[in-house]
């Protein structure tokens, strides 16, 4: 699916932003007009135009707020948050680029302003974690004990984005939702400089511990949803955290080893990954040809606190579910996207390795849902996800 851009990565990130329109994260005309001003494949142009749109919408939010127009202000703040997130996305080429923290900070702050104006019950919480904390939003329907969806993103998502991706839909269906950021994500990497870790059970267990202190949470009906790289992280956690009643991998990911990218069929002789000079030469050439690889490498070095490509490869080596997937006990849903340009084929690998009750759910291009994490088809994804989850958790509604 190509929208506006010929560059696949730019087209996908535009689709990702557009896909949050049903939950208040975008207005289609705003996104398209922004995209048409961007030079295809130019990271600086992407930042400039999305930031310009975010600032304009932010100003409208402030104006509406001053006039007492609560609903309009909330809607403007939500869209501004998503647009700032999108503007910050490609700011990885310059280490410690000050625009990254400033733009991401505005995405978080405008979302916080929107939260204050919501009819939904929302709490910003800090979950104790290894001498520090994990930032989270706890969304609840009411004071009753209810099933709860735990959701986290992946390689590049933020806790604020998870509202558009999952929390809003969960609330509509009577679920509480806890959206949190772990190591390598959101504020945890940007403010605390804590990088990704492969043993995600050590991240999720404190989250579960926290939820069990909440009287609004049904302890027998807690489900975990991981998005994108979260398709590895969530199953990894579920393999060792057995208080979860269900696990969803969107999309399923069996391995996230960067070294494997350079040993693919039809790519010539294998690269000597121990030779830093040879490796840097190869990556330099490939990054000039692919905006996706250029961004992925730069973002990886940022989120893993890696000083070199060789170090990034070493730090991602443990990111595999080989010998782990068969330890998952709870019912697990593995989602797959027909045209996934990141992890095609990996959902099937994960599904085949599972020995627990399992479901494979494929999303197709004909449905408009064939892109990575079904971007552009968020409503359809949530429809199918929550039908599965209702049935798995034994929920029946009049």
UniProtKB/TrEMBL annotation:
Q: Which domain of life is it from?
A: Bacteria
Kindly give the Gene3D superfamilies that the UniProt entry links to this protein: acylaminoacyl peptidase (1.20.1440.110), alpha/beta hydrolase (3.40.50.1820)
Signal peptide location in the record? none
User: Which keywords accompany this UniProt record?
Assistant: Hydrolase
Q: Where do the AB hydrolase-1 domain residues begin and end? A: 149-350
Q: List GO molecular-function terms, semicolon-separated.
A: hydrolase activity
Query: What protein name does the entry list?
Result: Alpha/beta hydrolase
In its UniProt entry, the species of origin is given as: Paenibacillus herberti
């Amino acid at each position: 699916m190509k929208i506006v851009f010929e560059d696949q990565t730019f087209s996908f990130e535009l689709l990702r932003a557009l896909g949050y329109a049903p939950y208040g994260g975008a207005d289609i005309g705003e996104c398209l007009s922004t995209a048409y001003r961007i030079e295809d494949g130019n990271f600086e142009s992407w930042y400039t135009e999305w930031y310009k749109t975010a600032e304009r919408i932010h100003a409208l939010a402030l104006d509406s707020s001053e006039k007492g127009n609560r609903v309009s202000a909330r809607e403007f703040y939500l869209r501004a948050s998503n647009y700032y997130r999108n503007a910050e996305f490609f700011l990885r080429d310059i280490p410690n680029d000050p625009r990254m923290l400033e733009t991401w900070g505005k995405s978080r702050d405008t979302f916080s302003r929107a939260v204050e104006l919501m009819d939904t019950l929302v709490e910003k919480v800090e979950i104790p974690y290894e001498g520090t904390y994990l930032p989270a939003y706890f969304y609840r329907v009411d004071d009753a004990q209810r099933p709860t969806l735990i959701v986290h993103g992946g390689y590049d998502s933020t806790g604020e984005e998870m509202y558009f991706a999952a929390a809003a839909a969960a609330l509509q269906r009577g679920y509480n939702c806890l959206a949190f950021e772990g190591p390598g994500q959101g504020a945890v990497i940007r403010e605390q400089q804590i990088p990704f870790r492969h043993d995600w059970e050590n991240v999720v267990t404190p989250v579960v511990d926290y939820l069990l202190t909440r009287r609004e949470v049904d302890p027998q009906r807690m489900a975990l949803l991981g998005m994108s790289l979260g398709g590895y992280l969530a199953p990894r956690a579920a393999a060792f955290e057995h208080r979860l009643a269900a696990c969803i991998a969107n999309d399923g990911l069996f391995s996230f080893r960067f070294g494997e990218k350079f040993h693919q069929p039809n790519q010539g002789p294998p690269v000597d990954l121990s030779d830093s000079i040879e490796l840097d030469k190869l990556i330099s050439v490939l990054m000039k040809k692919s905006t996706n690889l250029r961004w992925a490498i730069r973002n990886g070095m940022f989120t893993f606190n890696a000083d070199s490509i060789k170090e990034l490869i070493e730090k991602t080596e443990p990111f595999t579910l080989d010998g782990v997937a068969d330890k998952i006990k709870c019912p697990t849903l593995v989602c797959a996207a027909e045209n996934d340009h990141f992890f095609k084929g990996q959902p099937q690998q994960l599904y085949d390795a599972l020995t627990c009750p399992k479901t494979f759910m494929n999303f197709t291009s004909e449905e408009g849902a064939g892109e990575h994490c079904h971007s552009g088809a968020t409503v359809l994804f949530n429809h199918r996800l929550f039908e599965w989850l209702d049935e798995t958790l034994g929920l029946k509604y009049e």
